[in-house]
Automatic annotation (TrEMBL):
SUPFAM superfamilies: Actin-like ATPase domain, Winged helix' DNA-binding domain. This is ROK family transcriptional regulator. Belongs to the ROK (NagC/XylR) family. InterPro entries: ATPase_NBD (IPR043129), ROK (IPR000600), Tscrpt_reg_HTH_AsnC-type_CS (IPR019885), WH-like_DNA-bd_sf (IPR036388), WH_DNA-bd_sf (IPR036390). It comes from Microtetraspora glauca.
Length: 384
């Protein structure tokens, strides 16, 4: 480093493993021994690092190693979905310490849902202290800086709600809110792909369809937070299905879990849930498999356009429907490789989620951790 490193920057060196002894910190930063000692002492006092077992000796007394203390605080997280909400407490490495899944009708609105989520956090905390931040993923377009929901896909009663002050009135810590698929994409990328690639398209196929875009290693939100709203891109030959947004044949209305159930019922199948569809697929029911594969083709039509536009290294398919139905994934692959450009698909991979349902929890935690442990936050605040 060309200038004197701050305490926050020293913490980043320790967290990354780039410098884990006082001597290494001095060599990397150019700080004097007293300056290193001062910064390390502050981090120890704040509980953000601990002194580990003595490291290997190169002659003389072995150096004491410094290690990031993931137990130095907790993060409250919740990933709200149309049918299922995941609520957890995570440590400062993003690992869940306690978790529960709830069936919550998010369309009941924030006055009902947010108190229920906060009550659940209180129960999961069970007397634990050290809350440093809150992360929330919601199925809506979110103006990230303000934490305001601008357009809700499945919960219109939330539109225009500024969420952070509501939660901060009970948990007075930084509160970050983002679109549900954005946080899933962040979790999937950071925990499963960051060492391999910087450009990823995550597509969630569940009750509804949405996408999160990782470009150059960072989430792409767009000017108003609406990047990734592929669910409302129309497809050809969709049959004239009216979407809840008012347009016809949006991919959300013809290829989502809700659309698959509707189409099978129209064909006389007795299906009340995606589990019923799964049973028919596993039984080899030809008509059901054809419906699911056609949904995959329609989704593939939209993803092919996104591949040509964004040129991701990998398309990750997640959500209940993608995880349940291989015929849908096969339909996506068929159309994407046929309709995307040869260059964009030269090394493109299309694969299932590596993290599975836990990606939303992980993404919410990392979103908060990146903020509260940033050099700027560490240097501008006292112990969390």
């Amino acid at each position: 480093m060309s200038r004197l490193a701050t305490t926050g920057e020293v913490l980043q060196l320790i967290r990354s493993g780039e410098a884990v002894t006082r001597a290494e910190i001095g060599r990397v930063t150019g700080l004097s021994r007293p300056a290193v000692a001062h910064r390390v002492a502050e981090l120890l006092q704040r509980g953000l690092i601990v002194e580990d077992a003595e490291g290997p000796s190169t002659g003389g007394r072995p150096p004491v190693r410094l290690r990031f203390n993931a137990a130095g605080g907790v993060v409250l997280v919740a990933s709200l979905g149309a049918g299922r909400t995941q609520i957890a407490i995570c440590d400062l490495a993003g690992e869940p310490l306690a978790r529960t899944d709830l069936e919550i009708d998010v369309e009941e609105g924030p006055d009902v849902v947010l108190p229920l989520v906060m009550d659940t956090w209180e129960k999961l905390l069970d007397g634990r202290g050290g809350v440093v931040g809150v992360g929330l993923g919601v199925p809506a377009t979110v103006e990230f800086a303000a934490g305001r929901t601008e357009s809700a896909r499945v919960m219109a009663s939330w539109t225009g709600v500024v969420i952070p002050p509501i939660i901060a009135s009970r948990f007075p810590v930084p509160v970050l809110v983002d679109n549900d698929v954005n946080v899933i994409a962040m979790g999937e990328h950071r925990m499963a792909y960051a060492s391999e690639l910087d450009d990823l398209l995550f597509v969630k196929v569940s009750t509804r369809i949405g996408a999160g875009v990782i470009s150059g290693g960072d989430i792409l939100r767009g000017a108003l937070g609406a990047a990734g709203e592929i669910g409302h891109i129309p497809v050809r030959d969709g049959g004239g299905v009216l979407c809840r947004c008012g347009n016809l044949d949006c991919v959300d209305s013809v290829a989502s879990g809700t659309a698959i159930l509707r189409e099978l019922r129209d064909k006389g199948r007795d299906v009340s849930s995606l589990a019923d569809v799964t049973a028919l697929v596993r039984a080899g029911d030809a008509e059901t498999m054809a419906v699911v594969r056609q949904a995959g083709r329609r989704l593939g039509e939209v993803i092919a356009t996104a591949v040509n536009l964004l040129n991701p290294a990998v398309v990750v398919l997640g959500g209940d429907v993608a995880e349940m139905f291989q015929p849908l994934v096969s339909g996506v692959r068929e159309i994407v490789y046929r309709r995307s450009t040869q260059l964009a698909t030269r090394s493109l991979r299309i694969e299932g989620s590596r993290l599975g349902p836990g990606a939303g929890i992980t993404g919410c935690a990392l979103m908060v951790i990146d903020r509260v442990l940033s050099p700027e936050a560490i240097d501008g605040t006292r112990a969390p």
